[in-house]
Amino acid sequence: MMTMDLFDDLDAPAWAIESRLEQLAPGAVVLRGFATANAITLLADLNRVIADAPFRHMVTPGGFRMSAAMTNCGALGWVTDRTGYRYDAIDPETGRDWPPMPESFLRVAQDAAVRAGFEDFEPDACLINRYEPATRLSLHQDRNERDFTAPIVSVSLGIPAVFLFGGLNRADKSRRVPLAHGDVVVWGGPARLRYHGVLPLKEASHAMLGRQRINLTLRRAG
Ligand code: MD3
Ligand code: FE
């Protein structure tokens, strides 16, 4: 069939075109606008999560208040306090389990993971970060998870941010990657332990979220 022949002549597979797949580095794939069509559902589900587990500013082991407000959903939640970083089944603010992972979060994360080549991603934790203008996240590695063979999927909503994508050593030079509303990034394989962070956000307003950026990071923690 003619249309199939045209597709077969392109050097990228059809799914790469549909989702505008960009490879940042081995193991790191950006899917521009992948979550845009689901944003209303994701934000409605987020509102139910934060009614149960409100955003809060956690404290690092060094005693610094984090500038991003955070909460979690799923079986495990990432927490930090003066005693260290860890995953915990209980929200220390409420003494209750974290809210369940909304189906909409799971679906977008698993669909994105499949696009990036990770077929069996079963996240049990979603860390939710809320940024306002001037909020930043300093360079760090995500290494509190048990199994580094699982990727991390991040979903950006609201005002844009510049993501810092470093190397396997803190001193490695980092690249700046702009992330906008609806962008989804899958970080796995050789990219899984790369240093990363977020530059201070610029003043901006988004039609759905006002002066906020929400980032969902879905992980296999336990
Ligand atoms: C690259 N969040 O929650 S998401 C975090 O935009 C975190 O809120 C940032 O870093 C944010 O830990 C960045 C992108 C991200 C998440 C995990 C990664 C990039 C990653 C793990 C390895 C390499
Ligand atoms: Fe991180």
Automatic annotation (TrEMBL):
It comes from the Bacteria. Binds 1 Fe(2+) ion per subunit. Pfam families: 2OG-FeII_Oxy_2. One of its GO terms (cellular component) is cytoplasm. Fe cation binds at residues 140, 142, 196. Residues 122-222 form the Fe2OG dioxygenase domain. It is an enzyme of class 1 (oxidoreductase). SUPFAM superfamilies: Clavaminate synthase-like (SSF51197). It catalyses: a methylated nucleobase within DNA + 2-oxoglutarate + O2 = a nucleobase within DNA + formaldehyde + succinate + CO2. Keywords: Dioxygenase, DNA damage, DNA repair, Iron, Metal-binding, Oxidoreductase. Its EC number is 1.14.11.33. One of its GO terms (molecular function) is oxidative RNA demethylase activity. Belongs to the alkB family. Dioxygenase that repairs alkylated DNA and RNA containing 3-methylcytosine or 1-methyladenine by oxidative demethylation. Has highest activity towards 3-methylcytosine. Has lower activity towards alkylated DNA containing ethenoadenine, and no detectable activity towards 1-methylguanine or 3-methylthymine. Accepts double-stranded and single-stranded substrates. Requires molecular oxygen, alpha-ketoglutarate and iron. Provides extensive resistance to alkylating agents such as MMS and DMS (SN2 agents), but not to MMNG and MNU (SN1 agents). This is Alpha-ketoglutarate-dependent dioxygenase AlkB. It comes from Candidatus Methylophosphatis roskildensis. The gene is alkB.
